[in-house]
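[User] Could I get a sequence and structure tokens?

[Assistant]
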Amino acid sequence: MAISVKRDQSGPMRHVVHIRSHTFVVDEPPANGGEDSGPSPHDIYDAALGACKALTLVWFARRKGMPLEDVEVSVERDDSQERDGVYRLRTRVSISGDLSDEQRQQLLAVAARCPLHRLMTEVRTEVETVWK
């Protein structure tokens, strides 16, 4: 699968992302020279973690027959030390449903092991940049 990111010259930093049949705009906030017409790449990275945790909780609860009703995950970024090699994300998980304390603890543990959490913390990612 290829993801395409193409400049949209209607804005100074605006780009359009194409993933399969999905299209969305990415941009930078005004402080970085953009118009904030879409999320920044950092926003998308952080949101991917929150989305993965939410989707993993729903998948797991369905698989185990747990009465999970609603899921909300918020992600807070601390990038104050990013240039020193430390990028901190704190996720807060809120769920509802007629769940026992044991099920709630099990779901929290599952959220802490979602695929993107593991990818961000346990896997070495190699990126190659070449001319098209």
In short: The radius of gyration is 18 Å.
